[in-house]
Amino acid sequence: MTTRTTESTLNFQHAFALSALDAPLPAGAYRVDVDEEAIQGVSFLAFRRTQTLLHTPAVSNSGGTTRLPSQVFVVDGDELAAAFKADRSDGANAPSTKGAGK
Known about the structure:
- The chain is built from one helix and four strands, in the order ββββα.
- By secondary structure, it is mainly β.
- The chain has one domain.
- Strands 1-2-3-4 form a four-stranded antiparallel beta sheet, covered by helices on one side.
- It is elongated and about 50 Å long.
């Protein structure tokens, strides 16, 4: 089976929370890897997302110089996209930190 990984960086302007994380993450640039596998049996090349990985700490942030241990979290790609979209909207719609401990 053919697989691929796409790496990108998401630049959050505000702190954000995801259900896969114990606490909100601060604003910053976060590395995201999306793993996909080829869909078999179709007449054209198509891929389906199998997992989305969020790397912490942020590549860059406005916080102090304390270096946190590197961690990788499997997160819901749709939830991450919604948090990023909310971050890009005006501050009144910034993502809530409620329920971050799920």
